[in-house]
Design brief:
The complex is a heterotrimer. Chain A is mainly α. Chain A has one domain: Methane Monooxygenase Hydroxylase, Chain G, domain 1 (Up-down Bundle). Chain A has 6 helices and no strands. Chain B is mostly helical. Chain B is globular, with a radius of gyration of 21 Å. Chain C has one domain (about 25-275): Rossmann fold (3-Layer(aba) Sandwich). In chain C, α5 (about 130-140) runs parallel beside α8 (about 180-190) and α6 packs across α8. Chain C is globular and about 55 Å long. The chains are: A mainly alpha, B mainly alpha, C alpha/beta. Chains in contact: A-C, B-C. At the B-C interface, α7 and α8 of B face α4, α5 and α8 of C.
Chain lengths: ~220, ~260, ~280
């Protein structure tokens, strides 16, 4: 029954774009964390420089979505795909922004002596990154089950965040001399925690796209 | 090339028509006068006119129309609106065949079934003969005109709860009215030129008459009789009568044109 | 911190639409038209296969589907317009207000008075504007006086959003109107006898976009008083005007759903393929 439609070409072009944006975002997060843990300012600057490209991609996707809706009037699963992509692109861009903030924190911290708890952030970062990868995979393959798993695993990030939060507060009290650096790390942790929430949004869009189910604000986020 | 050729053909056709009209006018106009139009025929050498023949033709046409139009239109409505299948196909075939029957045959037929039992020629039998010529023409033009009425119009009326007969009478027939009127007028014009069916029926008369059971004069029969006579005066009168007949037919056609200017 | 925020945020209850049917409001209304296991035959070939469908009162239901899918045939079974076509046969039940319109002794004239119809091609009678609208009233002997007649004609023309455009020339020919006006005249003609159900067979397919949008606005207004069933080839039109949509394919009813659901997330794969233009 299927026949080739011009719309299909446009939709696949849109899919390529959003995956490209996803890839850029993933890399930005990975490199920012590398810059932080390996104290590599050059890599951090690289992340910041690349952000323009991310912004540009987002705008481009936005325009493409509007064009398709205006000119092709997609319906049903096509419509859900376009709407999901249109909502997903700004989310990815914001994740990249958080990565930039982490990169900026890395530059600042690299100018000062190292503080130990930096390494405690690694598992959290690794988890955020794997969540993001899994979310993009779920989107690409239209796998709502995987998307739901990813949403569930967000609680893990929240647990890690709570743990780091308490540890850093403790450190600030016991060792006030490193307090400003600890505060920076606290922000990095907060960025990672936010990224987890954004990844959750992406997964919700994937579930909407594949099953037409609105699960936003419904699913249990309780720990 | 094509244009030139078709232009030549058109010119030939129109030219011949104009030639006929001009020739008839030239030959006929000499004997034409007001007296000629209202007087009845006189013996050779005394002049006389064709008034009785004009009246007779009008009576015959009225009679033929009164009989032929309702029946013809009725058959047309049946074929278009009601009849279907074999019966309608049969009726359609018969009307087509009737159209092709030579009018002299119709005349002889009416002679056999009307004139012989009545034992004399009559205006009525002439009217019947002309009506028989008209019916198939009117029936088929009516059917065609009704078929031109879009089906959606019938559905529109039916959807408003109109029964079939109201749809036909109130919507379909009025919609086709001008077309049917055209067909009717053309049929009248056609029979007004008929001579053959009248020879054995209305027969002809040298006097004014409007009695339906008596023989009656008609322009065509008068023209026929005068044209084959040995007298030059009658030949001239035949030409004048021809001119009157042609004018009459032309008049009917003009009326048709005016009638068919659609009001809606 | 996040955890505490979550407990503080009350759960937002978004009512989820059931896919099978109609909004809760629709469900409360009684079905105006209910069709059960309807088969329809043109001679020996079956055009409709076991259609079952309920149309609630005062909504707009759109029938969509590719050409020849039976949607028009089905529409025409609802006022027995198919009776006009020789060698046709309907089997099953079509209930209007609970009464089967196919049982023996049904007054078809009365039925068509209650179930009006507007056709694809506007078909005004070759009469004046006034007489077109008055036709149904006259043949059904609805009005008792000529003032009542002209009152009803005026009201029908107003309901069809045509009054302002024609009030000064009611006596002129209906054929002098533009295509869009003619179609609205046909709607006025149908409305004049105050039907309960209005069937529309692609009412805007021959009109330009402006005339089309006028008809669509009109349909929107009319559903306050009438139950409207519209067949359309234009899916965007179905999306714009209808509350519920039924999708037909090869003489079968594939899916009935709320229009929102139909156009964002239909239940059936076939519906989805049709709506997204994947049909070959």
């Amino acid at each position: 029954m299927d026949k080739h439609r011009h719309l299909d070409d446009e939709l696949s072009l849109l899919r390529d774009r959003v995956l490209l944006l996803g890839g850029e975002t993933e890399r930005a997060l990975e490199r920012a964390m590398f810059a932080l843990t390996e104290r590599d300012t050059a890599v951090a600057n690289e992340v910041l420089d690349n952000d323009d490209r991310v912004d540009l991609l987002e705008v481009e996707i936005d325009r493409q979505c509007i064009d398709i809706i205006a000119l092709r009037q997609p319906a049903a699963r096509d419509l859900r795909f376009v709407i999901s992509v249109a909502k997903m692109a700004p989310v990815l861009e914001r994740i990249a922004d958080h990565a930039c903030n982490i990169a900026r924190a890395a530059i600042d911290l690299n100018n000062e002596p190292e503080v130990k708890p930096v390494h405690d952030l690694s598992p959290m970062a690794a988890h955020a990154l794997s969540m993001l990868r899994a979310a993009l995979d779920a989107f690409t393959s239209g796998d709502a089950e995987l998307a739901r798993e990813v949403i569930k695993s967000d609680s893990e990030i929240n647990n890690l965040y709570n743990h780091i939060f308490h540890r850093l507060i403790e450190l600030m009290v016991t060792e006030p001399s490193t307090a400003s650096r600890d505060a920076r790390l606290l922000f990095v942790a907060k960025h990672l925690e936010r990224i987890g929430d954004y990844v959750t949004d992406i997964c919700e869009l994937t579930v909407y796209m594949t099953e037409a189910a609105f699960i936003k604000h419904y699913h249990q986020r309780s720990n | 090339m094509m244009t030139t050729l078709t232009a030549l053909c058109t010119f030939a056709a129109v030219g011949i028509l104009l030639l006929i009209l001009a020739y008839i006018s030239w030959r006929g106009v000499g004997s034409l006068s007001f007296r000629f139009l209202i007087d009845s025929p006189r013996p050779v050498g005394e002049g006389g006119g064709i008034g009785n023949a004009i009246l007779g033709s009008l009576v015959l046409l009225a009679l033929a129309s009164a009989l032929g139009l309702p029946i013809g239109i009725g058959v047309g409505v049946y074929l278009s609106e009601i009849g279907s299948g074999r019966l309608a196909a049969g009726v359609r075939f018969i009307t087509d065949t009737l159209t092709g029957i030579p009018s002299i045959v119709t005349g002889v037929f009416v002679y056999a079934i009307v004139v012989l039992p009545m034992k004399h020629f009559s205006a009525l039998s002439g009217g019947i003969a002309l009506a028989l010529v008209m019916i198939p023409i009117v029936a088929r033009t009516t059917e065609e005109m009704l078929n031109l009425v879009p089906h959606s119009l019938r559905e529109g009326a039916l959807a408003l709860g109109a029964p079939q007969w109201r749809v036909t009478l109130g919507v379909v027939l009025p919609a086709a009215a001008s077309g049917i009127a055209t067909g009717a007028m053309l049929a009248i014009a056609r029979v007004s030129g008929e001579t053959a069916p009248l020879l054995f029926t209305a027969f002809g008369s040298r006097f004014f008459s409007y009695y339906l059971d008596q023989p009656i004069a008609s322009l065509t029969v008068l023209i026929y009789n005068y044209a084959i006579s040995p007298y030059d005066e009658w030949h001239a009168q035949a030409w004048a009568a021809t001119l009157v007949l042609v004018t009459l037919i032309l008049g009917i056609n003009i009326v048709v044109r005016i009638l068919t200017r659609r009001r809606f | 911190m996040l955890a505490s925020m979550q407990t503080a945020t009350p759960k937002i209850e978004v009512p989820q639409r059931k896919s099978e049917a109609p909004t809760t409001e629709d469900q409360r209304r009684e079905a105006k038209v209910a069709v059960r296991d309807l088969d329809f035959f043109y001679g020996k070939s079956q055009a409709l296969h076991g259609i079952s469908l309920e149309i609630p009162e005062r909504i707009v239901m759109a029938f969509i589907g590719p050409s020849g899918c039976g949607k028009s045939t089905f529409l025409r079974t609802l006022n027995r317009m198919n009776d006009v076509i020789p060698n046709t046969r309907a089997q099953g039940e079509v209930l209007i207000d609970g009464h089967d319109i196919y049982i023996a002794g049904t007054d078809v004239v009365e039925l068509r008075r209650r179930v009006g119809m507007v056709f694809q091609k506007s078909n005004p009678f070759p009469k004046s504007i006034f007489e077109n609208v008055a036709y149904g009233l006259r043949i059904n002997r609805v009005t008792k006086s000529s003032s009542e007649l002209s009152g009803r004609v005026e009201q029908a023309l107003k309901d069809a959003a045509l009054w302002e455009e024609v009030k000064d020339r009611l006596k002129s020919s209906a054929l002098s109107l533009s295509g869009g006006q003619q179609q609205r005249l046909c709607i006025a003609r149908a409305l004049a006898i105050r039907p309960e159900v209005l069937l529309m067979d692609e009412p805007a397919s021959a009109l330009d976009p402006i005339a089309t949008s006028k008809i669509e606005e009109l349909i929107f207004d009319l559903k306050k008083h009438y139950t409207i069933v519209i067949v359309t080839h234009n899916m965007q039109q179905a999306a714009r005007v209808s509350d519920q949509t039924a999708f037909f394919l090869l003489g079968k009813l594939i899916e009935v759903n709320t229009t929102e659901k139909m156009f964002t997330a239909p239940n059936e794969r076939l519906t989805e393929d049709y709506i997204t233009g994947r049909f070959g």
